[in-house]
Amino acid sequence: MSDIHIRIEGRAGRITLTREKALNALSYDMCLAIDAALKDWAKDDTVALVMFDAAGDKAFCAGGDIAELYETGTKGDFDYGRRFWRDEYRMNARIFEYPKPVVSFLQGFTMGGGVGIGCHGTHRIVGNSSKLSMPECGIGLVPDVGGSLLLSLAPGRLGEYLGTTGHRMTAGDAVYAGFADYYIPEDRWPSLISALAETGDIAVLEAAAQQAPESALKAMQDDIDATFAGETSADILTTLKTRDDAFAAECLKVLLRGSPLSVATTVEMIHRLRSSTTTMRSALDLEYRFTYRAMEKGDLLEGVRALIIDKDKSPKWQYTDGTVPAVAVSQMLQPLGPNALSFEED
Hints:
This protein is 47% helix and 11% strand. Strands 1-2-3-5-7-9 form a six-stranded mixed sheet, with helices on both faces. Helix 5 packs antiparallel against helix 6. The longest helix is centred in the N-terminal third of the chain and has 18 residues.
């Protein structure tokens, strides 16, 4: 497949995303290919570890390829999207639960679906160019691909902040927030990849790791905790409106630009996951409840139209006054019964 290069090199199973012109956006076929390789290598004693990297310097993976989702969804066919998310989430869980080390090199943009493949392994490496984010609320989705679990585990109220604003994390931010493990200058990456393939020994990463740059998020932690601690998104908006400072003004601007339903549901999801004994599978199950309904009941199709297809940047969201009824959030997160996400092979 021209969009992805999967092979065994020495002791390593290597997966390189090669859709450089599309910022290595993840297609459905790429998801299936990754999952098949992971299944094979889990049983292959010659493979000591798995490595993810990507072509080009602009992006590791700037998200999922949603053009096909939009095309099918606008025709009333929601099954394609539901199948895509189901199989993608199974692959995300496989990476998280993998029995061997999984190393990812996250240059440039790592967004949405890129987080799902790049941030669930055991050794997540960032460099100077790294910019990580979960910007789904801006198109009428919620942070998914297991990102909701990472958000729920982030310090303080960073999860609510990152999940609703889509704030782009630098390398230092990503390490601080728990989305990455090591900061290593990117000019060292080619030699590290070669050494990992030759030896299968992840100790070379520990030796190469450097102190991560200062995190701006860490410096913002007190402001974030003070303003994003509300029980609902409406509480958060109310708190932000009572403040007269640049931080609150910027947060309000971004939050009011996203889908109110997505923002409200994101806050609820993070609270549920934080307050329970959460696993990756339970997080993906909760995400799937929303994405299963996203085209039919949510704002996804309108968000994609406004921001990606027509590019008028004027989406006509539901609940435009920002007041989202609690029942609307509950309905998006209701269990799916026989349609619930299953991790068993079909």
